[in-house]
Amino acid sequence: MKRELTFKNKDQELNRVSEFMEGVCDELQLDMHVAMKLQLAMEEMVANVIFYAYPKGTEAEITLTVESENNELTFVLSDTGKPFDPTAKEDADIETNPMDREQGGMGILIVKNIMNEVSYQRFGEENRLTMKKKL
What we know:
This protein is an alpha+beta fold and 135 residues long. 33% of the residues lie in helices and 30% in strands.
């Protein structure tokens, strides 16, 4: 199975991503608990791209691809925003009081805990975040 969704970098597009993920999870007949975690992971990463990858007022397209093969799901999130490797950022310190903690980093920490593998590559003008989950 391979599915792809292309959407704009607008916050209202998060609804389309959610519907896309629901459809993928339903098609694969995934356990509701696993489906909810995957949906959370995609929403976190897509929101980061929508809100932070582009200068305010810039319209661009983002692509989310999902492929299922050999009991493994591979998600690839591609955008042409500013270069940013979320995997290079040090994990958020969840032991520190949230009021004292540096802002950011919780989304990628959540994704790293849900997925089995998360990697980033920059190809020319394209950011590509690949996330893999063994079923």
